[in-house]
Design goal:
The chain is built from 13 helices and twelve strands. The protein is α/β, with parallel strands linked by helices. The protein is globular, with a radius of gyration of 20 Å.
Length: about 350
């Protein structure tokens, strides 16, 4: 029988997609730990509750007693840490929450995993992995004329979110160097796909377009991001755990750089064909608003190390992945509505966009 893995933050966007594909492609069990913040919930794991290989535990990675008990009870062969606060705009308004969740949460989890790993022996100990799911934002803004960042790029985080993830990465690195804990770090570019919270760019634009509301573009809309379909990201993570070396960092990119304005235009084009307006194009709803403070101009990653070492390549192009994403949101309107009609979501939209008129 295949081994158990422990996934933290598994009821969030990327974590829930990872668990779905893991259970589809493996006979091993999955223990999911999730705090249940606004961006996560059991609805993200719909359809998995009857799978005896999956157990969802409500809890915080900073709860060392809980994590210790779960590690000892289930004896996982790997821990994958998705647990994090991830929205840059929120980090500007509530930076302390990001320090607590992303820095202190990761530290507490690492320390419990270290003690668990110390108690393993033989093949169990040799094969164990701790995978930290990180972000390209730790590298900071990349000049337009520079090549995409490789794993040696010096950190230059510019938002509280990016700084908190950079700090977490440094703790992961330190636990490998100091204690020998077999850690790995995966830094991905902007993800999109099913179950992404509608505060993020692509689902936000789909949601607002369907409601005939203005589509807010920060600044001039020419900020460049490198886009990765979530299914491709999850496949890369599975490869890293199975074939990647301990102590290594791997960038994950599909090399799909687009400006925010290009992304929104592409969404409008897909919607125009799949769900036409009564009159005109969705592109007519685009509205420019005040930019985010310290908004990074460009992110881009070089994933040649990942391709060379574990043999991963993205399957989806930006166009094919976006078409799948729009189709999923059109057929899962109830999921989006349940999130967007919640009081916490409406309150955040008011706070964030009132300063961007």
């Amino acid at each position: 029988m295949e081994p158990c893995i422990l996934v933290t933050g598994g009821a969030g966007f990327i974590g829930s997609n990872f668990i779905r594909t893991r259970l589809q492609e493996s006979q091993g069990s999955v223990i999911t730990v999730d705090k249940g913040t606004y961006a996560a919930g059991p609805n993200n794991l719909t359809g998995l509750t009857d799978d005896g290989r999956h157990r969802l535990v409500a809890g915080d990675i900073a709860d060392r007693t809980l994590m210790r008990e779960l590690l000892q009870e289930h004896r996982p062969a790997a821990v994958i840490n998705f647990a994090a606060e991830t929205h840059v705009d929120r980090s500007i308004v509530f930076p302390e929450e990001f320090v607590q969740a992303n820095v202190m949460g990761t530290f507490n989890l690492l320390d419990e995993v270290r003690h668990y790993w110390d108690g393993l022996a033989g093949a169990e100990k040799d094969g164990f992995r701790f995978l930290q799911v990180s972000t390209d934002e730790v590298y900071g803004s990349l000049p337009l004329d520079e090549a995409p960042c490789d794993e040696q790029k010096v950190f230059a985080p510019n938002s509280p979110y990016a700084a908190s993830k950079a700090a977490a990465d440094q703790f992961v690195r330190a636990f490998h160097r100091t204690y020998g804990l077999p850690t790995q770090i995966a830094r991905c570019c902007n993800n999109y796909g099913p179950y992404q919270h509608p505060e993020k760019l692509i689902p936000l634009m789909i949601h607002k377009a369907l409601r005939e509301e203005p589509l807010p573009i920060y600044g001039d809309g020419r900020q460049i991001r490198d886009w990765l379909y979530v299914g491709d990201h999850c496949a890369a993570l599975r490869r890293i755990i199975a074939r990647g070396r301990a102590g290594e960092v791997y960038n994950i990119s599909a090399r799909a750089e687009r400006t925010n304005l290009q992304v929104v235009g592409a969404i409008c084009a897909v919607l125009d064909e799949a769900y036409p307006r009564k009159s005109g194009s969705y592109g007519e709803l685009i509205a420019y608003v005040a930019d985010r403070p310290g908004h990074d101009r460009r992110y881009a990653l070089d994933s040649s190390k990942l391709v060379g070492e574990v043999g991963w390549r993205a399957v989806e192009s930006f166009e094919s992945g976006l078409a799948k994403t729009v189709r999923w949101y059109l057929t899962n309107i109830e999921w989006v509505t349940a999130v967007a009609d919640g009081g916490a979501y409406r309150e955040w939209m008011t706070v964030n966009y009132s300063q961007r008129r």
